[in-house]
Amino acid sequence: MSEAGDESVVVDGKRIERVLEALSLASVGAFEEAISLSGALTEDRFGALEESLLVLLRELKQTREEHDKAMSDLESSRRDLEEQLATIERQRIAIRELSVPIIDVWDDVLTLPLVGAIDSARAAEMTEKLLQRISHRGAEYVIIDLTGVDVVDTMTAAHLVRLTHAAKLLGARCVLTGLRPDVARTLVDIGVHLGGLTTLRTLKDGLRACLAMRELDRRALRKKPAGEGKEAKEGKPSKANAKPEASGKAELNGKPERKALPKAEPKGPVEDGVA
Protein backbone atom coordinates (compact mmCIF):
# COMPACT_ATOMS: atom_id res chain seq x y z
CA MET A 1 0.00 0.00 0.00
CA SER A 2 1.23 3.48 -0.76
CA GLU A 3 -0.07 6.86 0.14
CA ALA A 4 -0.33 9.92 -2.17
CA GLY A 5 -0.54 13.08 -0.11
CA ASP A 6 -2.62 13.31 3.00
CA GLU A 7 -5.99 12.32 1.49
CA SER A 8 -5.16 9.73 -1.17
CA VAL A 9 -4.90 6.05 -0.22
CA VAL A 10 -3.92 3.18 -2.45
CA VAL A 11 -5.45 -0.12 -1.26
CA ASP A 12 -4.82 -3.63 -2.45
CA GLY A 13 -7.81 -5.05 -4.31
CA LYS A 14 -7.82 -8.22 -2.21
CA ARG A 15 -8.42 -6.17 0.95
CA ILE A 16 -11.36 -4.47 -0.68
CA GLU A 17 -12.78 -7.83 -1.83
CA ARG A 18 -12.34 -9.20 1.69
CA VAL A 19 -14.25 -6.28 3.17
CA LEU A 20 -17.06 -6.67 0.62
CA GLU A 21 -17.30 -10.39 1.30
CA ALA A 22 -17.42 -9.76 5.07
CA LEU A 23 -20.27 -7.28 4.57
CA SER A 24 -22.08 -9.82 2.37
CA LEU A 25 -21.76 -12.54 5.01
CA ALA A 26 -22.91 -10.15 7.74
CA SER A 27 -26.03 -9.30 5.73
CA VAL A 28 -27.21 -12.93 5.95
CA GLY A 29 -26.30 -13.29 9.64
CA ALA A 30 -23.02 -15.19 9.16
CA PHE A 31 -21.11 -12.99 11.57
CA GLU A 32 -18.56 -15.64 12.56
CA GLU A 33 -17.41 -16.10 8.96
CA ALA A 34 -17.39 -12.36 8.38
CA ILE A 35 -15.19 -11.77 11.44
CA SER A 36 -12.78 -14.55 10.44
CA LEU A 37 -12.15 -12.80 7.12
CA SER A 38 -10.68 -9.77 8.83
CA GLY A 39 -7.37 -11.43 9.55
CA ALA A 40 -4.40 -9.30 10.57
CA LEU A 41 -5.12 -5.60 10.46
CA THR A 42 -2.72 -3.23 8.79
CA GLU A 43 -1.83 0.02 10.46
CA ASP A 44 -2.93 2.45 7.82
CA ARG A 45 -6.00 4.55 7.10
CA PHE A 46 -7.81 1.65 5.40
CA GLY A 47 -6.79 -0.56 8.31
CA ALA A 48 -8.67 1.80 10.62
CA LEU A 49 -11.71 1.24 8.44
CA GLU A 50 -11.25 -2.53 8.66
CA GLU A 51 -10.89 -2.29 12.43
CA SER A 52 -14.11 -0.28 12.70
CA LEU A 53 -15.86 -2.84 10.50
CA LEU A 54 -14.59 -5.64 12.75
CA VAL A 55 -15.96 -3.90 15.86
CA LEU A 56 -19.29 -3.43 14.09
CA LEU A 57 -19.42 -7.10 13.12
CA ARG A 58 -18.72 -8.19 16.68
CA GLU A 59 -21.43 -5.91 18.06
CA LEU A 60 -23.89 -7.19 15.46
CA LYS A 61 -23.00 -10.75 16.40
CA GLN A 62 -23.59 -10.04 20.10
CA THR A 63 -26.86 -8.27 19.34
CA ARG A 64 -27.98 -11.19 17.19
CA GLU A 65 -27.17 -13.67 19.95
CA GLU A 66 -29.08 -11.63 22.50
CA HIS A 67 -32.00 -11.36 20.11
CA ASP A 68 -32.02 -15.12 19.50
CA LYS A 69 -31.88 -15.77 23.24
CA ALA A 70 -34.75 -13.34 23.85
CA MET A 71 -36.82 -15.00 21.11
CA SER A 72 -36.07 -18.43 22.58
CA ASP A 73 -37.13 -17.25 26.04
CA LEU A 74 -40.25 -15.71 24.57
CA GLU A 75 -41.14 -18.95 22.77
CA SER A 76 -40.56 -20.91 25.95
CA SER A 77 -42.79 -18.47 27.86
CA ARG A 78 -45.47 -18.82 25.19
CA ARG A 79 -45.41 -22.62 25.50
CA ASP A 80 -45.59 -22.35 29.28
CA LEU A 81 -48.51 -19.95 29.00
CA GLU A 82 -50.35 -22.28 26.61
CA GLU A 83 -49.81 -25.19 29.00
CA GLN A 84 -51.10 -23.10 31.90
CA LEU A 85 -54.16 -22.06 29.90
CA ALA A 86 -54.82 -25.69 28.97
CA THR A 87 -54.51 -26.67 32.64
CA ILE A 88 -56.88 -23.87 33.67
CA GLU A 89 -59.39 -25.01 31.04
CA ARG A 90 -59.23 -28.61 32.27
CA GLN A 91 -59.69 -27.43 35.83
CA ARG A 92 -62.61 -25.24 34.80
CA ILE A 93 -64.27 -28.20 33.08
CA ALA A 94 -63.64 -30.39 36.13
CA ILE A 95 -65.04 -27.73 38.47
CA ARG A 96 -68.08 -27.31 36.23
CA GLU A 97 -68.69 -31.06 36.26
CA LEU A 98 -68.34 -31.16 40.02
CA SER A 99 -70.60 -28.14 40.47
CA VAL A 100 -73.51 -29.98 38.82
CA PRO A 101 -73.21 -33.62 39.96
CA ILE A 102 -76.21 -35.72 38.98
CA ILE A 103 -76.33 -39.11 40.73
CA ASP A 104 -78.48 -42.15 39.97
CA VAL A 105 -79.46 -43.21 43.49
CA TRP A 106 -82.23 -45.64 42.50
CA ASP A 107 -84.15 -46.90 39.51
CA ASP A 108 -85.89 -43.88 37.95
CA VAL A 109 -84.62 -41.63 40.81
CA LEU A 110 -81.96 -38.92 40.29
CA THR A 111 -80.29 -36.71 42.88
CA LEU A 112 -78.89 -33.24 42.24
CA PRO A 113 -76.83 -32.14 45.29
CA LEU A 114 -76.04 -28.42 45.13
CA VAL A 115 -73.12 -26.70 46.83
CA GLY A 116 -72.35 -22.97 46.97
CA ALA A 117 -74.03 -20.02 45.32
CA ILE A 118 -76.34 -20.45 42.33
CA ASP A 119 -76.12 -17.70 39.73
CA SER A 120 -77.85 -17.41 36.36
CA ALA A 121 -75.08 -19.16 34.40
CA ARG A 122 -74.91 -22.08 36.83
CA ALA A 123 -78.70 -22.35 36.96
CA ALA A 124 -78.88 -22.55 33.15
CA GLU A 125 -76.19 -25.24 33.12
CA MET A 126 -77.98 -27.18 35.89
CA THR A 127 -81.25 -27.07 33.98
CA GLU A 128 -79.65 -28.22 30.73
CA LYS A 129 -77.75 -31.12 32.27
CA LEU A 130 -80.64 -32.27 34.44
CA LEU A 131 -83.10 -32.25 31.53
CA GLN A 132 -80.65 -34.18 29.38
CA ARG A 133 -80.16 -36.80 32.11
CA ILE A 134 -83.92 -37.11 32.68
CA SER A 135 -84.51 -37.62 28.96
CA HIS A 136 -81.59 -40.04 28.61
CA ARG A 137 -82.32 -42.15 31.70
CA GLY A 138 -86.10 -41.87 31.63
CA ALA A 139 -86.10 -40.77 35.27
CA GLU A 140 -89.43 -40.08 36.93
CA TYR A 141 -88.28 -38.56 40.25
CA VAL A 142 -85.62 -35.96 41.05
CA ILE A 143 -84.28 -35.05 44.50
CA ILE A 144 -82.75 -31.56 44.66
CA ASP A 145 -80.62 -31.44 47.81
CA LEU A 146 -79.71 -28.00 49.22
CA THR A 147 -77.65 -29.18 52.17
CA GLY A 148 -74.53 -27.46 50.79
CA VAL A 149 -76.27 -24.19 49.91
CA ASP A 150 -75.72 -21.50 52.52
CA VAL A 151 -77.76 -18.68 50.98
CA VAL A 152 -81.02 -18.91 49.05
CA ASP A 153 -82.32 -15.56 47.83
CA THR A 154 -85.22 -14.63 45.58
CA MET A 155 -83.25 -15.25 42.39
CA THR A 156 -82.04 -18.67 43.58
CA ALA A 157 -85.57 -19.68 44.54
CA ALA A 158 -86.85 -18.56 41.11
CA HIS A 159 -84.16 -20.68 39.43
CA LEU A 160 -85.21 -23.71 41.47
CA VAL A 161 -88.89 -23.24 40.63
CA ARG A 162 -88.13 -22.95 36.90
CA LEU A 163 -85.93 -26.03 37.15
CA THR A 164 -88.70 -28.10 38.72
CA HIS A 165 -91.26 -26.88 36.16
CA ALA A 166 -88.96 -27.86 33.29
CA ALA A 167 -88.42 -31.31 34.82
CA LYS A 168 -92.19 -31.71 35.27
CA LEU A 169 -92.72 -31.10 31.56
CA LEU A 170 -90.55 -34.17 30.91
CA GLY A 171 -92.65 -36.27 33.30
CA ALA A 172 -90.37 -36.11 36.37
CA ARG A 173 -91.52 -35.05 39.83
CA CYS A 174 -89.10 -33.06 42.00
CA VAL A 175 -88.56 -33.15 45.76
CA LEU A 176 -86.55 -30.48 47.60
CA THR A 177 -84.46 -31.58 50.59
CA GLY A 178 -81.81 -30.20 52.92
CA LEU A 179 -83.20 -26.72 53.63
CA ARG A 180 -81.33 -25.30 56.61
CA PRO A 181 -83.24 -23.49 59.38
CA ASP A 182 -81.65 -20.12 58.56
CA VAL A 183 -82.37 -20.60 54.87
CA ALA A 184 -85.99 -21.50 55.59
CA ARG A 185 -86.32 -18.40 57.82
CA THR A 186 -84.82 -16.24 55.07
CA LEU A 187 -87.28 -17.58 52.52
CA VAL A 188 -90.17 -16.77 54.83
CA ASP A 189 -88.84 -13.28 55.59
CA ILE A 190 -88.43 -12.32 51.93
CA GLY A 191 -91.77 -13.89 51.01
CA VAL A 192 -90.46 -16.50 48.57
CA HIS A 193 -92.91 -19.22 47.53
CA LEU A 194 -91.59 -22.45 46.07
CA GLY A 195 -94.69 -23.04 44.00
CA GLY A 196 -96.09 -25.99 45.91
CA LEU A 197 -92.79 -27.88 45.67
CA THR A 198 -92.53 -30.81 48.10
CA THR A 199 -89.85 -30.09 50.73
CA LEU A 200 -88.38 -32.62 53.13
CA ARG A 201 -85.75 -32.43 55.81
CA THR A 202 -83.00 -34.78 54.64
CA LEU A 203 -81.90 -36.58 51.52
CA LYS A 204 -82.88 -39.85 53.17
CA ASP A 205 -86.44 -38.59 53.63
CA GLY A 206 -86.53 -37.45 50.02
CA LEU A 207 -85.43 -40.87 48.75
CA ARG A 208 -88.01 -42.57 50.96
CA ALA A 209 -90.74 -40.28 49.60
CA CYS A 210 -89.71 -40.94 46.00
CA LEU A 211 -89.74 -44.70 46.54
CA ALA A 212 -93.19 -44.46 48.13
CA MET A 213 -94.53 -42.44 45.18
CA ARG A 214 -92.90 -44.91 42.83
CA GLU A 215 -94.60 -47.86 44.53
CA LEU A 216 -98.00 -46.14 44.48
CA ASP A 217 -97.63 -45.41 40.77
CA ARG A 218 -96.71 -49.05 40.08
CA ARG A 219 -99.73 -50.32 42.00
CA ALA A 220 -102.05 -47.94 40.17
CA LEU A 221 -100.76 -49.21 36.84
CA ARG A 222 -101.22 -52.86 37.89
CA LYS A 223 -104.81 -52.28 39.03
CA LYS A 224 -105.88 -50.54 35.83
CA PRO A 225 -107.94 -52.90 33.58
CA ALA A 226 -106.19 -53.89 30.40
CA GLY A 227 -109.20 -53.26 28.10
CA GLU A 228 -110.11 -49.88 29.56
CA GLY A 229 -107.48 -48.01 27.69
CA LYS A 230 -108.36 -49.68 24.36
CA GLU A 231 -112.09 -48.89 24.66
CA ALA A 232 -111.36 -45.30 25.63
CA LYS A 233 -108.98 -44.94 22.71
CA GLU A 234 -111.53 -46.26 20.19
CA GLY A 235 -114.25 -44.00 21.63
CA LYS A 236 -116.52 -46.91 22.56
CA PRO A 237 -118.39 -46.85 25.86
CA SER A 238 -117.54 -49.58 28.32
CA LYS A 239 -120.10 -52.11 29.40
CA ALA A 240 -120.29 -50.72 32.90
CA ASN A 241 -121.22 -47.27 31.62
CA ALA A 242 -123.50 -48.41 28.80
CA LYS A 243 -127.21 -47.63 29.28
CA PRO A 244 -129.92 -49.95 27.99
CA GLU A 245 -131.93 -48.55 25.14
CA ALA A 246 -135.68 -48.10 25.53
CA SER A 247 -137.58 -50.83 23.71
CA GLY A 248 -140.61 -49.67 21.77
CA LYS A 249 -142.78 -47.36 23.80
CA ALA A 250 -142.47 -49.23 27.05
CA GLU A 251 -141.35 -46.15 28.96
CA LEU A 252 -142.00 -42.48 28.39
CA ASN A 253 -140.44 -39.91 30.67
CA GLY A 254 -139.66 -42.62 33.22
CA LYS A 255 -143.33 -43.87 33.39
CA PRO A 256 -144.76 -47.00 31.74
CA GLU A 257 -147.00 -46.29 28.79
CA ARG A 258 -150.71 -47.14 29.30
CA LYS A 259 -152.24 -49.52 26.76
CA ALA A 260 -155.61 -48.56 25.22
CA LEU A 261 -158.47 -50.93 26.03
CA PRO A 262 -160.53 -52.41 23.12
CA LYS A 263 -164.00 -50.95 22.56
CA ALA A 264 -167.02 -53.19 23.28
CA GLU A 265 -169.05 -54.16 20.20
CA PRO A 266 -172.88 -55.11 20.34
CA LYS A 267 -173.49 -58.83 20.05
CA GLY A 268 -176.73 -58.56 18.02
CA PRO A 269 -179.59 -56.31 16.90
CA VAL A 270 -181.33 -54.22 19.50
CA GLU A 271 -185.06 -54.67 19.71
CA ASP A 272 -187.53 -52.63 21.82
CA GLY A 273 -184.67 -51.07 23.70
CA VAL A 274 -183.45 -54.44 24.87
CA ALA A 275 -180.01 -55.53 23.78
Secondary structure: number of strands:
9
Shape: rod-shaped
CA gyration radius, whole angstroms:
51 Å
Strand % is: 5-15%
pLDDT < 50 stretches:
1-5, 238-256, 266-275
List SSEs in N-to-C order: EEHHHEEHEHEHEHHEE
Structural class: alpha/beta
For the termini, the CA-CA separation is 190 Å
What can you see in these coordinates?
With 275 residues, the chain is of the alpha/beta class. The protein has eight helices and nine strands. It has helices at residues 13-27, 31-36, 45-99, 120-137, 154-169, 181-189, 203-223, 226-234, and strands at 2-4, 8-10, 103-106, 109-115, 141-148, 173-177, 198-200, 251-252, 255-256. The strands form three sheets. It has a five-stranded mixed beta sheet with strand order 3-4-5-6-7, sandwiched between helices. It has a two-stranded antiparallel sheet with strand order 1-2. Strands 8-9 form a two-stranded antiparallel sheet. α4 packs parallel to α5. The longest helix has 55 residues, at 45-99. It is rod-shaped and about 120 Å long. The chain starts with a strand and ends in a 19-residue tail after the last strand. 15% of the residues are buried.
